[in-house]
Design a protein that fits this description.
Layout lengths: L8 E4 L4 H5 L6 E4 L2 E4 L10 E4 L2 E4 L4 E3 L5 E3 L7 H17 L16 H5 L1 E2 L2 E2 L1 H5 L2
Parallel strand pairs: 1-5
Antiparallel strand pairs: 2-3, 3-4, 6-7, 8-9
């Protein structure tokens, strides 16, 4: 039987060089399937909470191995394998069973959509893991 629900996942990426140069402040938090956002203008306010099927922390907690793969060094870090196992496997299974299915990535330019879906180098994304 096909998995019949829409799954919604969010992923936070590491700061890029521009954000590091500007000493960007991390305002995102993740605990389980809950993502929190702090208002940097009001640091004493409680963060806003949002619940998703998956909240993937990929901001830190990894190191690059000899092959270039970004492997977890913290149980909190969500690598490409985890994202594929949680999301890509179900899409692939449903497709092989003859169901129409889709993997949709949405977000700002530079937010990490292509990395999560296609990946690069040894860090293959969900689509790249399915295709030769």
């Amino acid at each position: 039987m096909a998995e019949e629900s829409v799954k919604v996942a969010v992923r936070v990426r590491p700061f890029n060089s521009r954000e590091k140069a500007r000493s960007a402040q991390l305002i995102i938090g993740m605990q389980g399937a809950t993502t929190t956002i702090k208002n940097p203008a009001a640091p004493n306010e409680d963060p806003r909470k949002f619940n998703f099927d998956h909240s993937y922390w990929s901001h830190d907690g990894f190191e690059e191995d000899a092959d270039g793969y970004l492997k977890p060094v913290s149980p909190r870090y969500a690598d490409q394998k985890l994202v594929f196992n949680d999301l890509g496997n179900g899409v692939l299974k449903n497709a092989w069973e003859g169901y129409n299915c889709s993997l949709f990535a949405y977000g700002q330019t530079g937010s990490g959509k292509s990395y999560s879906v296609v990946g690069y180098g040894a860090n293959k994304g969900s689509v790249s893991k399915v295709l030769p």
